[in-house]
């Protein structure tokens, strides 16, 4: 009997110890970061995000070149100091060598050092983009009006608009050219907040309403099924778990206050189903904001600046990850970019616009890489003829210094260098010595050269 009691105590203590181990075992918490890492990838949108990152870097180089007072070119040695400013992981020489259709390297006729500038075709596309943005001025005004209609108090911070200026297709001086010009529509408060002077209710139609109307007419669905639904397009390989379809169907039917609707009684989060309706309204606002952009994409960090103005007091990234059929977050590059899935098909915009077409041409020029097109071959033949002509003139007895003018003209015409690869290999040694300097000394030297 005594042996039986001791064995019973031993088994109970062993069970308690096992229970304590199970109780104190850490459980995996599903956070926004884990969801971001475990999401189903979209290879086409990821590739597009990588290309857009390259285009953004080239536009940053163009902005640095435009600040030069001595001319629209800069020495290659100075460009090597821009590596930390641009956030590049490769040498500037290798980066320039990858895109000969965008960058033109030539020898300075007086200092005899290597200089770089943009090609004539890239300059033409940049000027074309500015002219198209000016032509689409009324569309830009309509976009700002719609954003003000979505906002909680009919006002937005100018700083938030400046962050997504390029995404909205606004000119660089939009404060004066749009907000100041259309004073009957916009009103500036303390020069930092823009308000809507006149509320135009005719603009209050969300982009998703057109899709709902087509679904109702073409597929003969009931109004109950379509009235509050969103287009869903999951990426390839997305796993649909048990009960997911039923939850998605109930979420599509869930009523919510649409972005342009105004009701005295706002959504009460603490009521039954209030959290779901509040989140669905936030999904509708982000969906409409992305629909107003030119390329239907924006960086997540810049999207967060609209939380208070658009009454979205939620974790924006976590909300985007909850709806992978509507939004897609790409982590390619140094930033996280969100795409509107329904707007893209095979990496291209379904409904392009004039501003997107020009930027797509820039992207196509970048994607040419080092490939030699017929147009570039024709320019090289012209350059060889001009070089031969310069030698004959010099033999004919012209004055000293006459050879400088044809070289300057050939460099201004954007002719590509025949020995571009050799040039890049020569000055890559200078890049290595410059990259060893500290970032503080590099920025100090860069600012000194600008001044």
UniProtKB/TrEMBL annotation:
It comes from Pistacia atlantica. This is Uncharacterized protein.
